[in-house]
């Protein structure tokens, strides 16, 4: 148990007939750590949540259930079922003759989502007569936002399957929009694929023309060498070179294949470098902006924000404020001319204000539409820029990849070309004109082969393009028969849970604002006297049960901590105080007096100094009698006011009936004389006082006693009131030696301190 670290005044230990105790103010700065700052403001304690549930569940639960039912019903009543239609498509993996000529995407959802959600596709959908006939998509911008929000694009199990879905309260509209979006997307995809093939054809044409001229050149050289080679047997000289010529032929074939691939790649790279759009490029042609007419609220808002209108309105407000000030100070009679002049100026300014409003209202519609058009154009420009940036990034990535492939292909071709040139030079030294003729024929065959492959490539592209789009429909969207969610179970549960928590949140807010003390540990963080004891809750039925035993043990522990502490040794007069009523001070005072009497074996005097609302005579079932009030007023003696009917354990001095103000009765000299008389006959005197904040006379009583205990009731006392009452007691000179935390439940007290019962002797037979 934490002990009081402050030192008592030398005169605080009282003997019978001793003088009054010192009025030095007690402080607790020594109890605070050097690095700890004084507590300011409210701090949230997580334990407050459990306290709120424990204190508020009785009334918050039925209210929360009622609110939860209303919230769930509200969600159910406003629930609109949503239907989802899905269109399933697949990447076209088939081919007519040539496999791999037309590229197919490995992940349709990733590559096609950008095209599906562009304005080029959505605008075509929204302008469709069937879509317009539904009446759900009137405003173009809002309708486009709704389309993007409710449109779902994803893979259907595998990357080669693409699903386009649309959600809408009307199942017919959901299926119609889903199919129209797919139709517009396929139209744009066909257009882009056609443009790609056309561009590739246009860039392959120069290579085809080049190799046509190469074929003609090689044919001319063959004819010339054939004439030169007449008159000798070229077969004899060629037969010896068959093996070498076969090697050279193999090199030429490899070289021809590399030339064809290089020509195709060069066409693609040239196409990208020239800025010709590939399949990922999108020709964005946005429709004309449709700006709706401004509403009356928008016009009024524009008028109120007009600079001239605001200036006149501010001038009127300023003049009216001066007029109200003159009227409030009753200066109209003194400044009648100035007052009338202000009234006239207000009327003139009001006319100017009305005129300014008319001018602003006349130009409001055009200005609002102009601003709306500017904002829409900026948004559209940003969207186009984003699409162009994405397209450019894709083209740049493809261009770099193709350039890298072209560079690698050229490197391989250079190696083959070098081997071919070396082999050709060696054979030319041994083959003569026959070898030259053979080489010329080989060159012509190579040129013819390359030209044939280029033409074959072009024919393959044209042939495979006729098969159709790279994406085809597997299953068109049908009208859904069941909504996505037949009942809004999740939303009802969420709304019900939120509504159920509302009264508990209000209770938590109230508890946080009131800052009730729920645990003794909370007092340790305040600049207060240390907790000198925790008192269990008083059992409702007095007896020998466990709760009664634990309660008595807690009182005895409080008495032991008080009497055995170094700072409270020799204390004989003890005041029991509290901030407000209902905090257990009267119960603690009566039980502490009994515990002291049992411990010391001497009679203890209990004085009820709560003259306004006394309790001690009711606690012990005694008559009120003359009591403390008559003793202080001089109408009765000390012995006449003490009730000794309880025996030699505890004598009680009830409060008595007041006949004057308690502040006049409880003065310092009268209290000092009373306590001196009491200490002459009793070893200990316990004084039950009135609440500190409600009754100021308690400060005088506490100042004249040796020690003061401040009672704090669990879940009743508030932090701010306890701090204020402690400060008032200290300022009055009371020796606040500790805080008593009462009202602790039996289970909590037994868990923290245990339940150590006495062993009763068994009765003999």
Compose a concise summary of this entry.
This protein has 765 residues and is an alpha/beta fold. The chain is built from 23 helices and 11 strands.
Description:
Strand 10 (707-713), helix 22 (719-731) and strand 11 form a beta-alpha-beta unit. The protein contains 23 helices and 11 strands. The chain is elongated, with a radius of gyration of 51 Å. The protein has 765 residues and is an alpha/beta fold. Helix 3 packs across helix 5 (140-150), helix 6 packs across helix 8 and helix 20 crosses helix 21 (697-704). The strands form 2 sheets. It has a 7-stranded parallel beta sheet, with helices on both faces. Strands 2-3-1-4 form a 4-stranded antiparallel beta sheet. The relative contact order is 0.12. The model is unreliable at 1-41, 230-241 and 276-283 (pLDDT under 50). The two termini are 44 Å apart. It is 59% helix and 10% strand. It has helices spanning 47-77, 108-116, 119-126, 129-134, 140-150, 171-228, 234-239, 242-273, 296-304, 307-328, 336-465, 489-514, 520-524, 546-564, 585-600, 616-620, 627-633, 638-641, 662-665, 668-681, 697-704, 719-731, 746-753; strands spanning 83-91, 151-156, 158-168, 471-475, 531-536, 573-578, 604-608, 650-653, 684-688, 707-713, 736-744.
């Amino acid at each position: 148990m934490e002990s009081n670290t402050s030192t008592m005044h030398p005169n605080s230990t009282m003997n019978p007939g001793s003088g009054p105790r010192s009025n030095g103010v007690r402080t607790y700065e020594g109890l605070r750590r050097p690095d700890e700052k004084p507590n300011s403001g409210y701090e949230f304690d997580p334990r407050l949540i459990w306290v709120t549930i424990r204190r508020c569940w009785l009334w918050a639960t039925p209210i929360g259930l009622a609110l939860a039912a209303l919230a769930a019903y509200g969600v159910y009543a406003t629930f609109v079922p949503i239907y989802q239609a899905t269109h399933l498509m697949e990447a076209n993996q088939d081919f007519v003759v040539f496999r791999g000529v037309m590229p197919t995407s490995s992940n349709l959802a990733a590559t096609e989502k950008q095209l599906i959600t562009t304005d080029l596709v959505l605008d075509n959908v929204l302008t469709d007569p069937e879509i317009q006939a539904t009446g759900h998509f009137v405003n173009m911008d809002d309708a486009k936002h709704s389309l993007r929000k409710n449109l779902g694009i994803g893979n259907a199990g595998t990357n080669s399957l693409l699903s386009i879905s649309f959600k809408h309260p009307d199942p017919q509209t959901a299926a119609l929009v889903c199919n129209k979006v797919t139709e517009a997307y396929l139209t744009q995809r066909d257009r882009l694929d056609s443009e790609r093939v056309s561009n590739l054809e246009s860039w392959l044409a120069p290579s085809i023309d080049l190799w046509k001229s190469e074929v003609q050149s090689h044919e001319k050289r063959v004819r010339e060498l054939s004439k030169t080679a007449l008159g000798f047997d070229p077969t004899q000289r060629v037969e010896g070179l068959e093996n070498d010529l076969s090697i050279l032929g193999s090199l030429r074939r490899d070289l021809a294949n590399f030339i064809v691939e290089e020509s195709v790649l060069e066409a693609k790279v040239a196409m990208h470098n020239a800025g010709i759009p590939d399949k990922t490029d999108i020709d964005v042609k946005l429709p004309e902006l449709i700006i709706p007419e401004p509403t009356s609220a928008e016009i009024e808002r524009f008028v109120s924000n007009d600079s001239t209108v605001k200036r006149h309105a501010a001038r009127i407000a300023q003049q009216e404020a001066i007029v109200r000030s003159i009227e409030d100070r009753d200066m109209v009679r003194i400044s009648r001319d100035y007052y009338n002049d202000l009234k006239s100026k207000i009327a003139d300014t009001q006319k100017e204000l009305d005129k300014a409003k008319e001018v602003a209202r006349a130009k409001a519609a055009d200005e609002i539409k102009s601003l709306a058009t500017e904002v829409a154009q900026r948004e559209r420009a940003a969207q186009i820029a984003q699409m162009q940036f994405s397209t450019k990034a894709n083209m740049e990535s493809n261009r770099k990849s193709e350039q890298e492939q072209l560079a690698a292909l050229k490197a391989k071709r250079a190696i083959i070309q070098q081997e071919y040139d070396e082999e050709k030079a060696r054979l030319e030294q041994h083959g003569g004109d026959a070898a030259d003729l053979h080489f010329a024929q080989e060159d012509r065959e190579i040129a013819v082969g390359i030209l044939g492959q280029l033409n074959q490539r072009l024919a393959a592209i044209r042939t495979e393009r006729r098969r159709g789009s790279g994406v085809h429909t597997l299953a068109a969207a049908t009208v859904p028969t069941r909504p996505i969610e037949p009942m809004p179970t999740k939303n009802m549960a969420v709304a019900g849970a939120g509504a159920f928590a509302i009264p508990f949140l209000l209770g938590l807010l109230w508890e946080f604002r009131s800052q009730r003390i729920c645990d003794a540990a909370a007092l340790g963080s305040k600049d207060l006297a240390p907790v000198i004891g925790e008192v269990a809750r008083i059992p409702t039925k007095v007896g020998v049960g466990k709760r009664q035993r634990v309660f008595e043990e807690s009182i005895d522990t409080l008495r032991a901590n008080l009497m055995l502490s170094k700072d409270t040794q020799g204390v004989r007069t003890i005041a029991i105080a509290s901030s407000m009523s209902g905090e257990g001070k009267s119960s603690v005072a009566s039980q502490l007096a009994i515990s002291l009497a049992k411990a010391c074996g001497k009679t203890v005097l209990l004085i009820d100094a709560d003259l306004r609302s006394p309790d001690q005579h009711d606690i012990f079932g005694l008559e009120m009698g003359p009591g403390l009030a008559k003793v202080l007023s001089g109408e009765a003696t000390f012995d006449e006011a003490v009730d000794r009917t309880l025996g030699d354990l505890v004598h009680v001095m009830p409060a008595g009936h007041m006949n004057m103000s308690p502040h006049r009765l409880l003065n310092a000299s009268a209290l000092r004389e009373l306590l001196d008389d009491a200490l002459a006959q009793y070893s200990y005197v316990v004084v039950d006082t009135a609440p500190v904040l409600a009754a100021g006379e308690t400060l005088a009583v506490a100042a004249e006693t040796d020690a003061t205990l401040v009672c704090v009731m669990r879940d009743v006392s508030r932090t701010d009131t306890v701090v204020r009452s402690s400060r008032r007691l200290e300022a009055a000179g009371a020796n606040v030696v500790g805080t008593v935390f009462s009202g602790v439940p039996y289970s909590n007290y037994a868990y923290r301190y245990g339940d150590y019962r006495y062993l009763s002797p068994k009765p003999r037979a």
